[in-house]
Design brief:
It is built from eleven helices and twelve strands. The radius of gyration is 23 Å and the shape is elongated. The strands form three sheets. The protein has a five-stranded antiparallel sheet, with helices on one face. The protein is 46% helix and 23% strand.
Length: 296
């Protein structure tokens, strides 16, 4: 099923707000609403539901789901012809998100979206990642099992119920993200994640394209192609970027000298570390430290 893709950046992870069930008799339609301020997951468990968002219209069959945007006009497009039941889930996110026509567009816009997210979510040093969810999709058994868990908590106290629903919702979002990854360009996504993990676990050591080829058993050109597609930079560019992000943390969380930080994050020469830092941040490591925490 071809579908637009909703692209979220976390942390923070999109969070659960409320859920429920709605029943439609033949002749009834989905209510018209304008910019309700939350995402609305509509899962049809029985019958068929006609939905419109802006100028686009869809027919959601039994077993399918659709995610309505928080900033658009939603409406029913046609009366139900049979008894129809839906599960709805309202959720939201704090930070940046986008809707793209396909995965390639999501990945092409990923770097800009992440930078916008760091500003919107006030994240300066946190590692962020993407969550990709199809707008219109068929739900598998695992997804339905997670949805039913929402409604097995009615006997729990409210405080406990809300914690558990947040946890179930995060598992549901993770399930949708992984399902999409398995049906899109899975090789590139999975290999890029393997490269990123290797770099994160070994960034203090010397890493070259030859090391990556030996470790992952792929030609450096293909490794670079996958990383460029998913992360917007080559493995070596990502290595430098990751080292600099770790250095930024040490600059504000320790009294270590620039020389020690250089060594701790895997750079061999302080001059090259300072050059790379200035190129990425627009100021020297010492100026960065003084700007954020003053003189130590």
């Amino acid at each position: 099923m071809s579908s637009p893709i909703l692209h979220f950046v976390s942390p923070p992870i999109p969070y659960f707000i409320d859920c429920g069930r709605t029943f439609y008799n033949p002749g009834e339609t989905h209510i018209r609403r304008n910019s309700i301020g939350v995402f609305d997951v509509i899962v049809v468990t029985k019958g068929t539901l006609g939905l419109g968002e802006g100028s686009q219209e869809w027919t959601i069959q039994q077993g399918e789901a659709f995610i309505l945007r928080p900033d658009a006009v939603h409406y029913g497009t046609a009366p139900c012809t049979v008894e129809t039941e839906i599960i709805w889930i309202h959720f939201n996110t704090f930070g940046a998100w986008d809707e793209c026509s396909d995965m390639n567009t999501c990945l092409a816009n990923q770097t800009a979206l992440m930078e916008r997210h760091k500003v919107n979510a006030y994240l300066n040093h946190s590692e962020v990642c993407s969550i990709f969810i199809p707008k219109h999709f068929r739900l598998k058994l695992k997804g339905f099992e997670l949805l039913e868990d929402f409604f097995q908590l009615e006997q729990d106290p409210r405080s406990l119920r809300n914690w558990k629903r947040q946890n179930i919702f995060q598992l549901f979002i993770q399930h949708l993200d992984q399902e999409l990854a398995s049906t899109s360009d899975g090789t590139a996504l999975q290999l890029a994640d393997r490269i990123e993990l290797f770099i994160r676990q070994n960034y203090t050591r010397k890493i070259t394209n030859a090391h990556l080829q030996k470790e992952l058993n792929y030609h450096p050109n293909y490794l670079a192609k996958c990383m460029l597609k998913v992360y917007g930079m080559t493995p070596i560019e990502y290595l430098v970027h990751y080292r600099l992000e770790q250095a930024k943390k040490l600059l504000i969380q320790s009294n270590w000298s620039i020389a020690r930080i250089t060594e701790e994050v895997g750079f061999q020469h302080t001059s090259y570390f300072s050059y790379c830092f200035g190129k990425q941040e627009g100021l020297s490591p010492l100026s960065y430290r003084k700007k954020l925490i003053g003189h130590r």
